Amino acid sequence: MKALVKEEAGPGLSLRHVPEPVTGRGDVLIRVLRTGICGTDLHIRAFDGWARRAVRPPLVLGHEFVGEVTSIGGDVTGVRVGDLVSGEGHLVCGTCRNCLAGRRHLCHRTVGLGVGRDGAFAEYVALPASNAWVHHHPIDLDTAAIFDPFGNAVHTALSFPLVGEDVLVTGAGPIGIMAAAVARHAGARNIVITDVSEYRLELARRVGVSLTLNVAKTSVAEAKERLGLQEGFDIGLEMSGRPEALRGMIANMTHGGRIAMLGLPTEEFAVDFSRIVTSMITIKGVYGREMFETWYAMSVLIEGGLDLSPVITGRYPYQDFEAAFDDAASGQCGKVVLDWTA
What we know:
This protein is α/β, with parallel strands linked by helices. It folds into two domains: 2-146 and 308-339, Quinone Oxidoreductase, Chain A, domain 1; 153-285, NAD(P)-binding Rossmann-like Domain (Rossmann fold). The protein is built from twelve helices and 18 strands. The strands form four sheets. Strands 3, 5, 6, 9, 10, 17 and 18 form a seven-stranded mixed β-sheet that branches. Strands 13-12-11-14-15-16 form a six-stranded parallel β-sheet, sandwiched between helices. Strands 2-1-4 form a three-stranded antiparallel β-sheet, with no helix packed on it. The longest helix has 12 residues, at 174-185. The radius of gyration is 20 Å and the shape is globular. The mean pLDDT is 97.
């Protein structure tokens, strides 16, 4: 089969013929239809410091995908040949304390699909059946391909009740925009999203946020005043990993405000802990998706009319992966999808 491979320790990817994956009794084999390009894939392509630590070439990349089940192992139940599935890309041990307690998203032995083992940028991918999410209702294939990052957005946005709340989202990347869309769908009152990219702020306007804010020109405090928020924001969704974003968020939260933090900083930085303490602010770290409560919420949101199409801005046949990766790395895009049926 054809696959996108990180062949050696250095920049670049190769489209190569590799053996089809071997499946066990608890696995499913999936014919890949669409894949989404993630920031993780860009790091691996560049083979930066993180990738040098995390990846051992040769490796088939990719963890955002949708496909059709073509065969199942002898012990598999609940998934059938012909099912349309997306994949939970965090493979857990099943035996640690958190796994046994049903908190699989907290497994400390998690292996990442397309990072710690061969992934989905290929014509076929093997996956434990317990990691396959079956789409029981009609769904656009491009949307189904980005269920993994959509899950990050849903997990973050639904960390706290949103009905009637004023929400600040810092970082208008694709996941931040999807989180803003979820907040709108879930009944938030005002939603402000910040960035320094006018392109991405324009994408955010398409999902119905109350206010987009270029923080290179306008402060969060000014936006708060413009909306008439006398006490500050109730909910913060930090999606950028930028120190100035979190500091600005903390400074503009109401007393008792709650922050869910998905953005991953590149290094340690200082925050005003006296403000966190005296304002009684809650900060929750978020990584990945809850298995599988987040996935239920994702499907229900899509069935309920949540439209992710504004976030998908690039569609390429897999043979044009170089152009697709360049698009994804440009910053002038939303989500970029590869078509493996071409």
